[in-house]
Design a protein that fits this description.
The chain starts with a helix and ends with a helix. It has a two-stranded antiparallel sheet with strand order 1-2. The relative contact order is 0.12. The chain is mainly α. 74% of the residues lie in helices and 10% in strands. The mean pLDDT is 85.
Length: 187
């Protein structure tokens, strides 16, 4: 749950949240512009022909009432809803990826523990006993080499599982933006 909560730091999710806030600001601006804004101006004018001065005043009243920017507001609201939907879809996609990666990481750790704790030590004992039996002539060279090969295969599998575990941990850290080792230390 702690790792899942860290998804909010993902850059692709932050992009949609930022775009949603931008759309919200544009909606507020369009609503402000749709209000009737009367404009007043005044000035002084000189008439050259009669060498006279006059006072000029101007009043501007926009027409259309409060419905002036309704189309733009509707379009921006739809755009904001699109960003919200894409944000929710991205969260679901990221949580799904995170769940899969976490399960693969747990599985790799389980296999690693089984290989290092049970299988490889047993194969090492079997190799030592097979080598003794081979030296006494009880086993053939093929038996001894096959146990060596099984031990090498198990060690190679341990390396592969360790690599898979590291790659999954790196991918989880990339998705969440936080270190797995730091979250373990906090516990």
């Amino acid at each position: 749950a702690e790792i899942e909560d860290a998804i909010t730091n993902n850059p692709s999710l932050r992009y949609f949240l930022t775009q949603e806030r931008v759309a919200e600001s544009e909606i507020a601006l369009a609503r402000a512009e749709s209000r009737n804004q009367w404009q007043f101006s005044a000035g002084l004018r000189r008439f050259e022909a009669t060498d006279d001065y006059g006072v000029v005043a101007r009043v501007s009243v926009p027409l259309g009432g409060s419905q002036r920017n309704q189309g733009r507001i509707s379009a921006l609201t739809a755009e904001q809803s699109l960003y919200q939907s894409e944000s929710r879809a991205t969260v679901i996609e990221l949580k799904t990826q995170l769940f899969i990666l976490y399960q693969e990481l747990q599985h790799a750790r389980h296999i690693s523990g089984a290989l290092a704790g049970r299988i490889i030590p047993r194969l090492e004992r079997a190799l030592a006993e097979t080598q003794k039996a081979y030296q006494l002539g009880k086993y053939t060279y093929l038996d001894w080499v096959s146990i060596q090969q099984e031990l090498l295969d198990a060690r190679l599998a341990l390396i592969d599982v360790g690599l898979t575990s590291q790659l999954n941990a790196i991918e989880i850290e990339r998705l969440t933006g936080q270190s797995l080792s730091a979250s373990r230390e906090e516990k």
